[in-house]
Amino acid sequence: MLRRFLLLLGFLAFALNAQGQNFPNKPVRIIVPFPPGGGTDVVARAVAPKMSQVLGVPVVVQNHPGAGSSLGTELAARSPADGYTLLLVSSATAINNAFDKTISWDAQRDFQPVALLLFNQSLLVAHPSVPFSTVAELLAFAKANPNKLAYGSSGAGSSAHFGMELFKSSAGIDVLHVPYKGAAPAMNDLLGGQVQLMLSDISVVLPHVRAGKVKVLGIGSPKRFAATPDVPTINEAGVPGFEVSGLIGLAAPAGTPASVVARLNEAANEAVKDPKIREQLVSMAMIIEGGTPERLGQVLQADLRKWGDLIKKANLQKE
């Protein structure tokens, strides 16, 4: 019996090794658990062609939005652990893990980190009609007029939602939350004046900033960003200690062979090193990272702690 068991283990090890050596021999898909047009989608579509070139097979981006990114995340978690399905993970992955007790997946149990691609930056913007133009003026108005302002987000449990809740908690103000099914519809209503505020990925809001359609109040990064040098950080503009920098990375279903993960990590790192891709992403105020699978795992763990603490402090409940 023991001999049979050892033979079986040897066969499985051989099979996994062979799988890794033959990888890839068919298209790889990147599941983006958000609608097209958002910051995560932009990143996926920027890196996919270069990853395809490195891997020698098509790398296809598929959008599977819903439930604040949980639907697409669950689809990825339940996919075969063979390297042919990747999930574009973001801060929303950690937020949902901590926030939604009904989800069937776990960020640490069900996924194998592949690569940290970058950190994206968020701008706090306002509709031009509001009677304030700085963070300090916003705080004064909000404190004098509690719940008179509303902010839009890409959905309950999204990084845009939790970023604003962190802002509210840090600043001690009350602002109403209006969730949407994605960043694009939220931005449309901000432009139309149905909501007054939004903390959004720069890639989503920057064209409207340049067109003068929204007011920029501050950036969520810990220091001013070179691409937007005149925009103060929210920290320096009136909310000390505030920082929101969203991670974006790639993960595979747990159990994906180490050799396959290494190959995918190589392709991801080659993509973010490509000068044209870097230029595109840096122009949208994204901080390029790259690195090992372990680095992404560390950042995800830190995010889980950060957002878990906010949920308890602000007593946030799933809507």
Would you give an account of this structure?
- The radius of gyration is 21 Å and the shape is globular.
- It starts with a helix and ends in a 5-residue tail after the last helix.
- It folds into 2 domains: about 160 residues, Bordetella uptake gene, domain 1 (D-Maltodextrin-Binding Protein, domain 2, 3-Layer(aba) Sandwich), CATH 3.40.190.150; about 120 residues, D-Maltodextrin-Binding Protein, domain 2 (3-Layer(aba) Sandwich).
- It is α/β, with parallel strands linked by helices and about 325 residues long.
- Strands 1, 2, 3, 4, 5, 6, 7, 8, 9 and 10 form a 10-stranded mixed β-sheet that branches.
- Helices cover about 45% and strands about 20% of the residues.
**Percent in strands:** 15-25%
Distance between the termini: 54 Å
Total number of beta strands:
10
Q: Average pLDDT value?
A: 90
What does the secondary structure layout of this molecule look like, with pairings?
Blueprint: H1 2-22, E1 28-32, H2 39-55, E2 59-63, H3 70-77, E3 85-90, H4 91-99, E4 111-126, H5 135-144, E5 150-153, H6 159-171, E6 176-179, H7 183-192, E7 197-201, H8 202-210, E8 215-219, H9 234-237, E9 245-253, H10 258-273, H11 275-282, E10 287-288, H12 293-314
Parallel strand pairs: 1-2, 1-3, 5-6, 5-7
Antiparallel strand pairs: 3-9, 4-7, 4-8, 4-9, 4-10
Helix pairs in contact: 2-10, 4-12, 6-12
Brief synopsis:
The protein has 319 residues and is of the alpha/beta class. The chain has helices at residues 2-22, 39-55, 70-77, 91-99, 135-144, 159-171, 183-192, 202-210, 234-237, 258-273, 275-282, 293-314, and strands at 28-32, 59-63, 85-90, 111-126, 150-153, 176-179, 197-201, 215-219, 245-253, 287-288.
